[in-house]
Amino acid sequence: MTAAIQQLRETLAEVDDLKRAAAVLEWDLETYMPPGGVEDRAAQLGTLGRLAHELFVSERTRRLLEAAEAEVAGDDFDSDDASLVRVTRRDLDLDTRLPADLVAEAARAGAANRSHWQLARERSDWSLFEPSMRQTVEISRSMAAAIGYEGRPYDALLALNEPGVTTSQAEALFGELRAAILPLLRDVLDRADRVDDSVLDRELDTGRQLALSLEVAQRFGFDLERGRQDLSAHPFCVPFGPGDVRFTTRVRGTARDSSLFSSMHETGHGLYNQGIPRSLARTPLWDGASGGVHESQSRLWENVVGRSRPFWNYLFPVLQSAFPAQLSGLDAEAYYRAVNRVRPSYVRVDADEVTYNLHIMIRFEIENDLLEGRLEASQVPEAWDAKVENYLGLPPPPVADGPLQDIHWSQAPMGSFASYTLGNVISAQLMETIRGDIPALDGQLAAGEFGPLLDWLRARVYIHGRKFTPSELLERVTGRSLSATPWITYAQTKFGDLYALD
Amino acid sequence: MTAAIQQLRETLAEVDDLKRAAAVLEWDLETYMPPGGVEDRAAQLGTLGRLAHELFVSERTRRLLEAAEAEVAGDDFDSDDASLVRVTRRDLDLDTRLPADLVAEAARAGAANRSHWQLARERSDWSLFEPSMRQTVEISRSMAAAIGYEGRPYDALLALNEPGVTTSQAEALFGELRAAILPLLRDVLDRADRVDDSVLDRELDTGRQLALSLEVAQRFGFDLERGRQDLSAHPFCVPFGPGDVRFTTRVRGTARDSSLFSSMHETGHGLYNQGIPRSLARTPLWDGASGGVHESQSRLWENVVGRSRPFWNYLFPVLQSAFPAQLSGLDAEAYYRAVNRVRPSYVRVDADEVTYNLHIMIRFEIENDLLEGRLEASQVPEAWDAKVENYLGLPPPPVADGPLQDIHWSQAPMGSFASYTLGNVISAQLMETIRGDIPALDGQLAAGEFGPLLDWLRARVYIHGRKFTPSELLERVTGRSLSATPWITYAQTKFGDLYALD
């Protein structure tokens, strides 16, 4: 008779196949699907999602999991089998608590609200989106109630994205960050003229931009035998398995909106997935540890590497030889400074490193206020405007560049924004350890040698897939729990130097 | 309580969703998937295929079908409900006989053998493909045995593709065709110098070729809001639903290998699928009547239209203005003659209309010999070479242009080649009726007006989807059963004129 763990693996492999197939359909929807495909595709995705869910929460899976738990009881915590059983238990408990009807309602509402969001954004009219926002809040509350929580409803939603992280922990983190960022930002803005980024407005050929961003992705270590780059309106990365990890980028006409940073960001996600071993494939362990840990890799490669001085010492000559006319008379240092200029703005995805976390705080606070009844859907724009003034010192934006800028609130449940800031914080915490382990790192980056960094990340982070919670992973890799300090030190040092603060 | 037919429709919709999702994964595999994706994709396709099969042959579906049969007992044979129940019964009886494991094995083997085929073809080395061929034969035999047959294993495989057609009927048809084609070919080759096709060797820009072939597809009536054209090594057409029908093409450097005819061929398939009403979607009725009837549409648009004199009266000026330097000093008649030159060659997809069916006979005979044990996988190349000499009068080809030229034998079961010749025969039989109904057809084609022809096909053929067997459809549309005579008359008339035979 086959061991329960083996039978469990077979069932989980089927569930994974269904989810990955759905991911292929979603990738296609964003990249190549003709407009007429919407109706058929929605039906196909609905069926795949329902079947995957039914198979996963079935009585049979539950029985196999119980038997497997008994089988692996004495195994090492870190072993593949023990981790598989532990993570499957966590997922199954969560998925079992969510009623199928509620999940279906969320999917239906999400499909409809996505187009309401598009229209509302196009017309910059909150009233067109307000009913959708109300629905998102209601479904999020119902889901939080179904999952269960002790103090704060956001805790239940965090459990879906960031296992082990609580709302008050996140609030404390945001508090520390705010206390450091606001004075830093003030100092920087007092010396705004010390960094000139006008070079970024020069026009660059889009074909050559795309070729260059793909070249950088490969240089970082992204394997095109096991992945692709395509175009889509909103860049994303999606893994179909260890042999096929894809990301998308977008390209516009100037260096300011170049595809390069978007590609480096998605490449970071892609490197993570390409680095998770095939031995974990077709199980719930074959993925990143959490949304935040995944984001730590996109932010690490995009910012900590891709906006660093050594990186630009390497890349600038390459960029200059791709665009000799546009970039003549400049040097690496000037370009490094330009891509790091700090400038409060309305749109999160265009934000610099200093202000980015402020954009997340705005959303995190509003989500909590909505969930806990301190704010109505109708009041979101005014709350938004107040926070934009408070944090970013800017006058109220058009609502299209305010609460309508992100697609996220058209999809229930809320609760995924915190992962972006966790990603920033984790990337800096990892980098502190990496710098200890690889003292020659800056020299390597300046030589375009990314192998030692990638090898370190693969051996210490990627190899574990989804075995550990974010804190378990950080404890193992950095020797301490999640902390805002490394990011604060990183930002103060980097921007203190750039703006010649005291 | 919901009527059984309604519940049956819901289950069939889920089965269809799974199959269409698999089709998206297969399309992607041929167009964009990186090489490393093979293993994961094979697993995903295996699971989707198995789940679709299990759901379809489940006890529940069977009970619903029985109840639905009672409900529609008095309905008109041609009605949607009666047809749905009748075709579902036929499919269910067939699929019930096929064990789920065998179906999953075929899907897994197909995904793996596709890449073996690619490599073997690249290196023109049969030994690299021989194990795959053996596997295809074994799976085909197992499937034939599972389906059951009285005389010939090929009967069982034909039942999957061409309901109502038997091996001996196909053999009789091939016999009639052979008896007409071989003397026609002899006569034509005796006067080979009467048609000059040297113009086809002029080099044409590939980008402009692709644009032109897409323009012709649209001109025929292919709707790009509900479809796409992409590139792949082996052109194909695949429908994901009424709103998303895709075809691929390939492009090479000369007019001889232009993408035009390949695109017109796949466009024919695409027009068929785009013309099947949405009311039949997500049921077994939303597809072509059979492989052969589907092929009748690709051959009708590629050859009966696309290689006709009136069509070239329309298209030649368009082609000439796309390639003024290469096509100067020519006229429509010269080009019409060039694209119809008869010349025995190795590659099926490049074959002229006279020799094309001989290519199919080679494959049909070898498949029967393999299935009935008269031939081993290792002996395929020598059997191939002998038939190439016999039918086409040519010396042995490199194996890449011999039995490795088609992807088909990487996929089990065999048995689909006969549909190509059925397609030719059916296209001519339909065209005979069409010419009676639309006397002005040639004038319309010469004016680039394809609407009346497409409308006729939609109203008489496409609208029925898969309601009828090939003979039921032909009886309804042409008033008689499948016959080789219209094709033979068509070929003798057309090539008699072209080569000025007596």
Proportion of β residues of chain A?
under 5%
Biggest interface and which pair forms it?
A: A-B, 40 and 40 residues
Question: Which regions of chain A have little confidence, pLDDT < 50, spanning 5+ residues?
Answer: none
Tell me the structural class of chain A: mainly alpha
**Overall tally of domains of chain A:** 1
CATH topology of chain A: Neurolysin, domain 3
CATH class of chain A: Mainly Alpha
Specify the number of helices of chain A: 20
- Biggest beta-sheet profile of chain A: 3 strands, mixed
Oligomeric description of these chains: homodimer
Question: Which CATH architecture of chain A would you pick?
Answer: Orthogonal Bundle
What order do the SSEs of chain A take from the amino end to the carboxyl end, as H and E? Answer: HHHHHHHHHEEEHHHHHHHHHHH
Strand order of the largest sheet of chain A: 1-3-2
Number of strands of chain A: 3
